[in-house]
Amino acid sequence: MGVATSAMLLYVAKSYRGYLRVGDLIIPFALLHYGVGYSLWGFQFQFLSSVFFMTLFIYFSFHYTQKAKNGFLSGAALALLAASLCGMNGVLFAITESIGMLVWLFYPRTTPRNVPAIAMFAVVLAIGALIWVKWVPSAASSVGGINSRVFIRYIYSLVPASMGVLSFQNTFFAFLTVSLLLTGMLAFMAQKLKSRSLTLDDYVLAIAALASLMVMISVAVGRSKAQGEWNNVLGMHYGLMSVFIPVCSWLIVSKWLPDRASSLVGIALAAMFYIAFIENAQWRYSVVNSAGEHQTQIVQALQAGTDAKVLADTYVNDFTIDTPQNRSDVANGITAFRADGATLYGGSR
Fold first, then answer.
1. CB of 347 within 8 A of CB of 338?
2. Staple partner for 226: which of 140, 190, 215, 286, CB 3.0–4.6 Å?
3. pLDDT digits (tens, 9 = 90+) for 94-118
4. What is the pTM of this model?
5. 291, part of any domain
6. Distance (Å, rounded) from C-alpha 86 to C-alpha 4?
7. Does residue 30 or residue 150 have the better pLDDT?
8. Which residues span the membrane (predicted)?
């Protein structure tokens, strides 16, 4: 899915300008590096699928502008519907994009309004809103108020998190780069709105970047309330969903900047994301190499029948975050696996 997402965005880049630029290398570098969450944890499927279906929405929207067939808008609407079934972050993507498309379709113009398309995106919006209303928040939503300092720290770290490890090591530079891209994109969009020359392609890319920013703000609100201070692991956890901020902003900026300036910006961005790719690869291989002996030690202790509570107290951080409840859960889990005969945990079938 990561490769397919990268391929679709490269298609969009070529379709948008008519050709690819060296700066478009940020697409595979941001989506396929070794620090991206879905390469680390299985539960990341909900985030990867949200990004995949968001990209599919953009992809079908671009096909619609080329061929003006409602079937492609139907595909775009179905992609958003699928995104709304990929967890609450996907719901937020789908709601934001559906509202954006309805605004575009209702906007006064000389051509008749596309009633079937309006109906499709209205249905997607209604389903997303229903999921949101029926959703029962976790305990995280009721933990105190928002600490503005912590919230700002989360935003500061999440916006450039598509660069993975590099964004943790050089947060200011990474944040500045993505923020300048986003600001440039908004400036060009304001100019095109003023001159009434905004196209659907421009609009779709802009709202994708803003939807990604909206999801990051939502994450910052929830996590800053529930978890407190920033942890770099959260950047890997949520960073993939920030990818539309730099990518879509770059596509818009690169099309409307003078050719030489666009080339220079593209080369600088490609170099930066390439360095990020290398940094993530080095970090990943370092972790794998350093953890091998430790992981072998844990497996041997599990299979030797070491007391579950002792294992949980000693190795809790290898399973989850260290809290009294988590230690108890880990110990109970090991006991349950052994009772079921799981040989990895020291059981016998």
1. yes
2. 140
3. 999 999 999 998 886 656 778 888 9
4. 0.83
5. no
6. 17
7. 30
8. 41-60, 72-95, 115-136, 148-166, 172-191, 203-222, 234-253, 260-278
